[in-house]
Amino acid sequence: MRVSAVVSALLCVASVCALTRAEEYRRPGLEGPWNERHLTVPMNSVNVLAGPGQPMLLGQRYGDQVVEAGPQFIHPGPDWKTSPPGNQLWLRGGVAFGLTQDWEAGALFLPFQFTPHFSFSNITVFVTRGFRFGDVDAAFRLSFQTPNKNSSGERVWTLNPGFPVLWRAGRFRFDGAVLVPFATRDWWVGLNVPLRASVNVTPHVFFGLESGFVEPRFDVAGNANVPLGALAGYTELFGGSVVDFTAHFAWDRFLSPAPPEYVSALDVQSYRIDFGVVFHTLVR
After folding, report:
1. CATH at 185
2. Could you tell me if 161 and 192 are in contact, meaning their C-beta atoms sit under 8 angstroms apart?
3. DSSP letters of 104-123?
4. Which of helix, strand or coil describes residue 4?
5. Going by C-beta distance under 8 Å and a sequence separation of 6 or more, which residues neighbour residue 84?
């Protein structure tokens, strides 16, 4: 009886959510449901980034580092060699601003790594110029991280320029990009083609699947991979803010087309978990 009551209650909640109109939690100047949003943040609004899944963070990879907002747990399997080895726990936070209808800028300026050692890591900065064509958005995005020093003591900048696209079709939404990360001085170059298909099952609840192709560095043999991941989110209105609660799971090295010798092409022991919250609010 208790199980039946719980199931009935959940069905009632789902029915109410399904009947909820998107406009009931949209605010002037802010975008509401996930499936209706544009590629860039609306003008005079700000996203407080403390959770994964937002468009400006799709494909933010720098070498083997996968950048997302919010708490992040990375478990490297035995075939994924990290330096230093072991699980990684991160916490990143930042903002994205809508400068105009088509220009967006922001940064993850609070990047903390807690394990296997504590450090204040590289700040990730992004600037996007968007173009809107009805249900299709396109953009040019320049992302980069604050520099590291290489073995020779030289400052190395890592940049991640590319061309994101977005297509909306009713409740469905498709995000993709072609990105070409590279580093100065060391002059390595990579390729990243992230893909995400998502759907709003109600105006509040959305789910997505991710894949694509990643070659972190062409100068490292056997490093190409096909990732596989899933995104889940819930959108709600609190006061004057639209809020996304999101969670993300990914096998970042799910399938390697040409792995090194004695390394399995399929890697489900290496995975990443991200979760958190994003606030969409107007600049006052």
Report:
1. 2.40.160.40
2. no
3. EEEEEEEEEEEESS-EE---
4. helix
5. 116, 117
Give residue-wise pLDDT tens across range 59-99: 999 987 899 999 999 999 887 776 667 899 999 999 999 99
235 in a structural domain? yes
pLDDT value of position 93: 98
Q: Using CA atoms of 101, 168, 143, 118 in order, give the dihedral in degrees to the nearest 10.
A: 120
pTM across the whole model = 0.86
Q: Is residue 60 in some structural domain?
A: yes
Whether the upstream peptide bond of residue 84 has omega within 30° of 0, thus cis, is: yes
Range of the domain at 134: 22-282
Q: Is residue 214 part of a domain?
A: yes
Q: Are strands 205-215 and 226-238 parallel, antiparallel or unpaired?
A: antiparallel
- The predicted model gives 156-182 an average pLDDT of 97
Q: What are phi and psi of 37, to 5 degrees?
A: -80, 160
Residue type, 186: D
pLDDT(19) > 50:
no
Amino acid 163 reads: F
Number of domains in the chain: 1
User: Which residues contact residue 38 at a Cβ distance below 8 angstroms, ignoring those fewer than 6 apart?
Assistant: 31, 130, 132, 137, 166
Q: Return the half-sphere exposure (C-beta side, CA atoms, 13 A cut-off) of residue 166.
A: 24
Q: Identify whether 229 is part of a domain.
A: yes
Could you give the CA distance from residue 85 to residue 113 in angstroms, rounded to a whole number?
Answer: 14
